Amino acid sequence: MLSNKSFVRKTRHGKVVKVVREHYLRDDIACGALFCPTCDKSRAKLRDTALNIVVIDTNVALHQMDLLENEVMSDVVVLAVVLEEVKNKNLSIYNRLRTVIDNPLRHFFVFSNENHKDTYIKSLPTETPNDRNDRAIRVASQWYQHHLGAAKVLLLTNDNDNRRKAREDGIVAETVDSYVQTLGKPELLDLVARSDAMDVDVEDLRPNKKAVVYGEHKVMSEITAGLHNGRFHQGKLRVNRYNPFEAYVGSESVGEEILIHGRQDMNRAFDGDVVAVELLPQSSWVGSEVGKIADRDDEEEEEQVGLVPASADDAPREFKLEDGKKAAGRPTGRVVGIIKRNWRQYCGSIEPMKMPGGSGGTVQALFVSADRRIPKIRIQTRQIANLIDKRIMVSVDSWEPTSRYPNGHYVRTIGDIGDRATESDVLLIENDINSRPFSEAVLACLPPLPWSFSEEEHLKNHAHLKREDLRHIRIFSVDPPGCRDIDDALHCTPLPDGRFEVGVHIADVTNFVLPNLPLDVEASQRGTSVYMVERRIDMLPKPLTEDICSLRADVERLAFSCIWIMSSEAEIESVRFTKSVIKSCAALSYAEAQARMDDSRMMDGLTTDLRNMNRLAKIMRLRRIERGALTLASPEVKFEIDTETHDPLDVGMYQVREANMMVEEFMLAANMSVAGKILKEFPSCSLLRRHPEPTPQMFEPLLRTAAAVGVNLDISTSKALADSLDLAVGDDPYFNKLIRILATRCMTQAVYFCSGELSYPEYLHYGLAAPLYTHFTSPIRRYADVVVHRLLSAALGLSSLPEQLRDMPHLTSLSDNLNYRHRNAQMAGRASVELHTVIFFKKRPTDEEARIVKIRSNGFIVFIPKFGIEGPVYLVGKEAKGSSGSSNDGMWEVDDEHQIIRSTDGSRTFKVLNTVRIRIEVVEPQPNRQKLQLTLIM
């Protein structure tokens, strides 16, 4: 049967054209019920034992996913009209719904109602698209009721009008709340989302109406008009990670970030929301002069204190500061409307409260998120006694202007508060890290185990792939101790004429991860492996990462090799790329490689190769620095972990050896060589990596600190900065490293991008002083490298390039996800370090030397080199306690120019980069929120 759809649209040139589309209708589309006597059962999912066949409307799908994901919900029909509407309105919810649908154990069935002759309906002239879709849902529900006869078909809808019309048509229709009550599991009612916007027929359990706390949000028509005439400005709200009462909105129309300070001016916006902002009068704009350390744990002051930033950069483990002065020049505004919400599920705990008498009743509680950027959330629960000492997950439903807090609902329990595994899980969830086991579909893509190299398969039968046999070459790997996912190996063979053949051999992951299969899709979504202190969350399944692809010693493995001919002065004379088979002779740790190079008694071939390679690397590094590459520093922390309990036994700064730098140098060279090759072949669709040059404003904190200690830094070019950093030396042997750490804080994030998006000068990697750069050397743990391997293979004619990698929009979207996943992995890793630092010092209060890195009006920020810890030391306020317990309160004067804070009586003076002695201990300023406290030993 054929039905025609027609509509008009306007072309780019303004011409209105009529479009007619043919819509085919069928009468053989199955209902999906195993007990149906007439339909094809090959794809059926609705069970014989189903008590109800549940049909859900669009609003239930959009707002009740936490309930739908619970295993109690089964034998559910998702109509095609609902699935399409959800996809158009909320892609995140759509992906969650698809995951449930695709799980065969959940018995969710998609019915193509728009293609069935008995359920397809045409729009009426007076009908809105929403009303037409609601009618389509009722028609399909009625068809199911008649088609399945004795089976009970139930339409779930929280829309009063839709439910009334359904009942008039003889359809059994219920609210989500009333349906869940019939299931006999009262705790499931906690999962039900409630919102005025959803028109729910249940008692409103929110507090009585009271005075408006926040301004009403503008309607979308007014927002659109305001954006058009320049009254409003659109951007994404970023709440300061370390100070929840300040936020920034990046605005192209203003040309710089707009500061939003205080919950009032944030006006119910969450971190990540796309908002409309109105600028305040210029007299209310806030400057960023010397401030004081913000007390991020003081909830009592949240309504009184206006907090403003020291900088817009949420640098890791850097405490954001509260300004004490106002000055014209910093655009400041308030949120007037929400264009797109970014609500997600949040982890945290119930705020301690007096337990109610009786049992089984509904109580209200305040949920405190582990993410300080998120306000407290009011929830209703029937299981408060089971939740009070747990880490739980909560979703947000609504936030009315009359309520100080948003309303939400309980989703699930994660574990006990304070349990290390639970707290680690919280970090993963909060940073959107997928730590779930790989699905059966993904694991089915792996080759049979045990896997071993087959000469017949890889060298003879597939000779057209030109896989080169390099098993005769002395190849070795150098990695951190205990590394099992070895994705790179090296060789350095001296040639008779004094030159060297040097090779970087990278695990040939794409030989096993084929485009568009479930394994590839999963890896592209995960984006990167995540390294926590006590465990690793893999991008690829362990059989690949630790066995099949890992370039372990004494086993034959497939590789993608980059091989140079180099002069004795490390000049690259030629480069070639080849698929290969290798057999590593040794898997060394950095310490083992360094010990070999340092031991003059060792003269074997492997040690000689290491020494030759190290000599070449030093020349290459020096040449790179001469081009302007920066040698920066970061406080990398290393823990010694108990193998049984996974608790930290010791903590200290990570030691970098010459062996580390040697490997790094050749990985950088391989990445640069590959970048040039793929860009030449695919100028508009290569995946590259750039590091934008920092703005002069980003360098201001560094320049102020350096000037205060008599160091002149030239930031005009990366070369000038590198040279002046080399000259920044002092009596303290740690002085130069501190300056480099502060310089690192000024840098922008390096990002992946599609070459067709930008012009060539924008490809620059500022930190490496490299005009071209990409990631090729770690495909086991980074999906970007998998993409680059495919690009390189296609550039060499060894394979065809997957069609989606020729599509610029697809590659741009992929780059965005990789950047998001990379940043989240970094944040999760740093949060894991913070968690284990607290665990380590909880029973080990320690005194240690620290360096002052920032001066503020009520104290200073210190860095403790031995442990890589940074934090605030208060001289004024409730936390200003010396080791004796006496308060240090008093009058202090700040000399911002010279970065000095001194007591008014002249008895104490502290200057930036000076050494002080600090006590490190763990405190709990708020229930369930332990933190590391640093206090000055007077």
TrEMBL record:
GO BP term, pick one: nuclear mRNA surveillance of mRNA 3'-end processing
Cofactor(s), by name: Mg(2+)
Domain of life: Eukaryota
InterPro entries documented for this protein: Dis3_CSD2, NA-bd_OB-fold, PIN-like_dom_sf, PIN_dom, RNase_II/R, RNase_II/R_CS, RNR_Ribonuclease, Rrp44_CSD1
CDD domains: PIN_Rrp44-like
Cellular compartments annotated: Nucleus
Pfam family, one: OB_Dis3
Keywords: Exonuclease, Exosome, Hydrolase, Magnesium, Nuclease, Nucleus, RNA-binding, rRNA processing
SMART domains: PINc, RNB
Similarity section: Belongs to the RNR ribonuclease family.
The protein's name: Exosome complex exonuclease RRP44
